[in-house]
Amino acid sequence: MDRFTEMQAFVAVAERGAFNAAARALNRSPAAVTRLIAGLEARLDARLFLRSTRAIALTEAGERFLVEARQVLAALAEAEETARGAHGTPRGTLRITAPVLFGEMLLAPVLRDFLDANREVAAELMLLDRIVDLVEEGFDIALRIGELQGASLMARRVGTLRLVTVAAPAYLARAGTPETPDALRKHRLVAARGLGDGDWTFRNGERSIVHARAPALSVNTVRAAIDAAVAGFGITRALSYQVQPALAQGSLVEILASFETSRIPVHLVHPHGHRVPARVRAFLDFAASALGQRAAPDNRPFP
């Protein structure tokens, strides 16, 4: 078997975590994939996977080789596209990552529309609430919320978000509506990790106001915090798009809007490269337009 086929099989096993799953993806038998990996390990004189009866995992050598293998396969696919004169025609598999709720609520519908319009493109959308190394993990595009760090990625700004404070009407009727951040000291707070566990920053003109109080309830997902607020348990904070459905339905209302913090940018990012594959360029243009339509005319918050 040639080196390309071995490398392709290795990446498939590493990404899917199982020989059977990789075999299905490659339309080969599990035995054939096993032989490819064995041949690759013999040629490299290195063990790439740790195998047990229940799972497989990459060795340290395997992790290093995975980074290089993904880059080689991506470069080969790009070269083939160019040689076919297809650099301007979107095709191939697009790998995208985004935060979970943003991906579910906003990006996934845009991606479906893009695939409907580009039938030669397939896509894999991984929703992860962590910063992903695009090159190391083999992604084409990531959606990032917040200020970008470093200059290793190309970025396209697609909108901004607000951090909003919300509560259920029933809770406010029972406990009163706070008019200032200081008034929150008398209220029951629900904090989602990653959005400030009790330390909430507001602004009064140019002055920052930090409200620090242990929350009555701390949860590890924004959805759980929003559900608690909708149920009338207390007051929570979330990004504007995360609570937009509840605000539209009236199950939550925004409070302390005059103390809103600065807006949070949203970007689509991708690795630097001499030639950006057609599928990446096409999706960036499509998604920037589609997401931008969900922002106000001056590129303020998504709904």
Cα radius of gyration in angstroms: 24 Å
Distance between the termini: 52 Å
What is the topology, as strand order, of the major beta sheet? Answer: 4-3-5-14-6
Oligomer: single chain
Residue stretches low in confidence (pLDDT < 50, at least 5 long) are: none
Outline, from the CA principal axes?
elongated
Question: What structural class do the secondary elements suggest?
Answer: alpha/beta
Overall helicity: 40-55%
Please summarize the sheet with the most strands.
5 strands, mixed
Order of helices and strands: HHHEEHEHEHEEEHEEEEHEHEEH
Count of individual beta strands: 14
Beta content: 15-25%
- The average pLDDT score comes to 86
TL;DR of this structure?
The chain is of the alpha/beta class and 303 residues long.
What's the helix and strand layout?
Elements: H1 3-16, H2 19-26, H3 30-44, E1 49-51, E2 56-58, H4 60-83, E3 92-98, H5 100-117, E4 121-127, H6 134-137, E5 141-145, E6 153-161, E7 163-167, H7 169-175, E8 189-192, E9 199-204, E10 207-212, E11 217-219, H8 222-230, E12 235-239, H9 240-249, E13 253-255, E14 264-271, H10 278-292
Parallel strand pairs: 3-4, 3-5, 8-11, 8-12
Antiparallel strand pairs: 1-2, 5-14, 6-14, 7-12, 7-13, 9-10
Helix pairs in contact: 1-2, 1-3, 1-4, 2-3, 5-10
Description:
This protein is α/β, with parallel strands linked by helices. 41% of the residues lie in helices and 24% in strands. The chain contains 10 helices and 14 strands. The strands form 4 sheets. The protein has a 5-stranded mixed sheet, covered by helices on one side. β1 and β2 form a beta hairpin. α1 packs across α3, α1 crosses α4 and α2 packs across α3. It is elongated, with a radius of gyration of 24 Å.
